Amino acid sequence: MPLVDANVILRYLLNDHPVMSQEAREIILSGAETTPEILAEVVYVLRGVYKVDRPSIAAALESFLQEITIAQKPAIRYACRLFGTRSLDFVDCLLAGYHHMDGIEVITFDEKLGKALLNDPLSPPPAEEP
Which pairs from 1-7 meet CB under 8 Å and 24+ separation? Predict the structure, then answer.
């Protein structure tokens, strides 16, 4: 199974080049894989170069995850949802996903990430007793 890089994923998501976008689509839909590091680069480019807002990036990546093979998919999905709703960097969202979905201990000095690790930001608050 081929490993696709950020450029292939960007052409797939943006559909901005007639030939390359179609080729990216064919490659991805025929079975491809990627890595969390590559997704982090995709997020960086979408935010920095294309000025795409966080919720749109999160939605696009969550949809894309249905088309691609990637390790630790539940943690990556978590990271996408968190990125769309919080002001954490995508890599910090990945770390929170690994912690909350895979039970991996994450050590940090970053206060915002520390809060996201301590209390699951995507978990609904406990119901109050009547």
Answer: 1/31, 1/32, 1/33, 1/69, 2/27, 2/31, 2/32, 2/33, 3/32, 3/33, 3/34, 3/35, 4/28, 4/32, 4/33, 4/34, 4/38, 4/68, 5/34, 5/38, 6/38, 6/41, 6/42, 6/45
Q: Look up residue 87 and give its two tokens.
A: 């002001």
Return all residues near 23 (Cβ < 8 A) that are at least 6 apart.
11
pLDDT digits (tens, 9 = 90+) for 13-63: 999 999 999 999 999 999 999 999 999 999 999 999 999 999 999 999 999
Q: Does residue 126 carry a pLDDT above 70?
A: no
pTM for this entry = 0.89
Domain boundaries, the chain: 6-118
